[in-house]
């Protein structure tokens, strides 16, 4: 496999969407179209002491920068690699006394880079930071106010001996961060840990049913093909999760990214019938459907509240009750049912009630398979979690099947060198061996499983996170 370079793409004018990128040759599923290091990136405020400021890996023990005592690194290598970007930041942090928020820190890193290299095209970039969209003219009153506060704080933080930028330019940079800031995840892809600017990625337009996906791996992003892409075809990624009816997706995109989605799935409302699916036989009355939707919305709100307070048993109780009530009304692809299934399987796994969790997880995966693109990264991650839950519950055949399925998806969306794909490969090998043993000698299988569980070769379930599917770009919803 060759790593794509910028020779594989070309900037063009995409009708109705402004600039876009198109392929200059044919691609197949799992091809890397291009890889791009961050122009500038920072760790989120809440994680500055637990995530490396250079490679964005979560680590047990990090070394602190002796000067500012703010920056944290894996080791000397990461610290050395950071110095060019950190040098001016380090003294600014000392002078300022305390670290400003992530937006300000990112803006300053971008501007130190502009100061260092000029504002023209950087090597390997098809667009300069100056030329990225900022959408400041679309800002509402609230956003305008936040922008003014950010600019004020920035001016206090920005050292007087550094290059002076106009107010307009500073606003532009904050606008760029607001619409192009890409969410960086930790090495296992489980937690959003920071935000970065990737100019080339900023040129890739949105489609709710895209032909590419973006993954952050080892300090850079990769644009990967989800299927065959013909020469000359526009390259697209999805800025949001697919699992909402088209009207809601369009609202979300308009609100967060300031455009009206005209993709085929939105125009034709493709899959909306499945998202809103109701039972066929007997068909519930319209009144019953309406009532069930309202009940589901109310319950989801209660679930969200209970979950944020850590009342996991209450979450489970609410989900069980809702799923039972939804049963005679909603089809298995209905989004309200799928949201309950997703929460309850995740929380039950966390509570180690694997058997009950595994049944809900299976139903969820069955529904997802009918809705998502077969190579969707969210689908791959959900199938992986469901596979692990089934493995923990001792359903080795289902568990192994799901882990294989997840592995196949992640080979496309994450690539073979990504840590999660590697984890999955190890799980696939182990569950395959267990399955063989299960078929030969069930007694031995259970003995071995016990031993395996005691050794904990598989990752323990993470505490259920509050975030739904992470957004591609770092936006306040
Ligand atoms: Zn590091
Ligand atoms: Zn420092
Ligand atoms: Zn769309």
Describe this structure in words.
Pfam families: SET, zf-MYND. Keywords: Cytoplasm, DNA-binding, Metal-binding, Methyltransferase, Nucleus, Repressor, S-adenosyl-L-methionine, Transcription, Transcription regulation, Transferase, Zinc, Zinc-finger. This is [histone H3]-lysine(4) N-trimethyltransferase. Its EC number is 2.1.1.354. One of its GO terms (molecular function) is DNA binding. This protein has about 475 residues and is mainly α. Helix content is about 50%, strand content about 10%. It is built from 15 helices and twelve strands. It has helices spanning about 75-95, 100-115, 140-155, 165-180, 245-255, 265, 270-275, 285-310, 310-325, 335-350, 355-370, 375-390, 395-415, 420-440, 440-455; strands at about 10-15, 20-25, 30-35, 40-45, 65, 70-75, 180-185, 190-195, 205, 210-215, 220-225, 235. The strands form five sheets. It has a three-stranded antiparallel sheet with strand order 3-11-10, with no helix packed on it. Strand 1 (about 10-15) and strand 2 (about 20-25) form a beta hairpin. Helix 2 crosses helix 4 (about 165-180). The protein starts with 8 loop residues before the first strand and ends in a 22-residue tail after the last helix. The mean pLDDT is about 90. The protein binds zinc ion (3 copies). One zinc ion (ZN) binds next to loops.
């Amino acid at each position: 496999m060759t790593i794509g370079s910028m020779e594989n793409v070309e900037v063009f004018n995409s009708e109705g969407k402004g600039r876009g990128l198109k392929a200059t040759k044919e691609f197949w599923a799992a091809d890397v179209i291009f890889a791009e290091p961050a122009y500038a990136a920072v760790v989120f405020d809440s994680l500055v002491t637990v995530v490396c400021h250079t490679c964005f890996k979560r680590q047990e023990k990090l070394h602190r920068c002796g000067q500012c005592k703010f920056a944290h690194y894996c080791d000397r290598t990461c610290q050395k690699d950071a110095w060019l970007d950190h040098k001016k930041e380090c003294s600014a942090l000392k002078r300022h006394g305390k670290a400003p928020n992530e937006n300000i820190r990112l803006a300053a890193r971008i501007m130190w880079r502009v100061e260092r290299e000029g504002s023209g095209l950087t090597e390997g970039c098809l667009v300069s930071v100056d030329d990225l969209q900022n959408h400041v003219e679309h800002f509402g009153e609230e956003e305008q106010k936040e922008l003014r506060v950010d600019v004020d704080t920035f001016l206090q933080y920005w050292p007087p001996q550094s290059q002076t930028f106009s107010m307009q330019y500073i606003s532009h940079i904050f606008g760029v961060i607001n619409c192009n800031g890409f969410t960086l995840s930790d090495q296992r892809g489980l937690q959003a840990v920071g935000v970065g600017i990737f100019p080339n990625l900023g040129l890739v337009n949105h489609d709710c049913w895209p032909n590419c996906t973006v993954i952050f791996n080892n300090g850079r992003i990769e644009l990967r093909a989800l299927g065959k892409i013909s020469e000359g075809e526009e390259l697209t990624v999805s800025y949001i999760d697919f699992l909402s009816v088209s009207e809601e997706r369009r609202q979300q995109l308009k609100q967060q990214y300031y455009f009206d989605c005209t993709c085929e799935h939105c125009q034709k409302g493709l899959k909306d019938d499945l998202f809103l699916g109701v039972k066929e036989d007997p068909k519930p009355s319209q009144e019953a459907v309406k009532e069930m939707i309202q009940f589901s919305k109310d319950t989801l709100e209660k679930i969200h509240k209970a979950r944020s307070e850590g009342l996991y048993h209450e979450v489970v109780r609410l989900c069980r009750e809702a799923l039972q009530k939804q049963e005679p009304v909603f089809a298995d692809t209905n989004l309200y049912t799928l949201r309950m299934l997703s929460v309850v399987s995740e929380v039950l796994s966390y509570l180690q009630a694997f058997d009950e969790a595994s049944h809900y997880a299976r139903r969820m995966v069955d529904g997802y398979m009918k809705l998502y693109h077969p190579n969707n990264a969210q689908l791959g991650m959900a199938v992986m979690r469901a596979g692990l839950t089934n493995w923990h519950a001792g359903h080795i055949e289902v568990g192994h099947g799901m882990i294989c399925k997840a592995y196949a998806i992640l080979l496309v969306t994450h690539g073979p060198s990504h840590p999660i794909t590697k984890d999955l490969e190890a799980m696939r090998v182990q569950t395959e061996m267990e399955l063989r043993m299960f078929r030969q000698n069930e007694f031995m299988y259970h003995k071995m499983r016990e031993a395996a569980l005691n050794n904990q070769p598989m990752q323990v379930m993470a505490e259920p996170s509050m975030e739904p599917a992470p957004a591609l770009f770092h936006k306040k919803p």
